[in-house]
Amino acid sequence: MAKFEVSGFADVEKQLLQRTERAAIAVPLMLEAGAKVLVEAHKSEIEMTFSSDRSTGALAESIKSSGVEGGELGKYIEVSPTGKDKKGVSNATKGFVLQYGRSNMPARPWMTAANAKAEGDVNAAMRREWEAANA
Questions:
Q1: Three-state SS for 65?
Q2: How far is residue 31's CA from residue 34's CA, in Å, rounded to a whole number?
Q3: Any residues with CB less than 8 A from the CB of 83 and at least 6 apart, and which?
């Protein structure tokens, strides 16, 4: 009869658990670093795209990131316009309408442009956090 022995698995298990612990620490830091870059990119794109006399800058100033959310299966941060204007209109609604337009107004996709421009910088910021946590 054949005999099967495994040795050294305890070391592999220990290394995997250490990676899991490092990831649990690094992921929130990575998300926060990426969100910080994306918030600035959204603000910059709004200011550049909507620079008329009608623009008050309130939409750009309303761009915020949420805290780290999610459970054990996944974490995320939302970056979006927050709050309301003096008339009670949600800044998120204004941002949505400007992004996608409406029947009497063409779309001006500021968020799509900001996300595309910032993609590399967001990934670089997140990578720096990962490498710092795993050094």
A1: strand
A2: 5
A3: 62, 90, 91
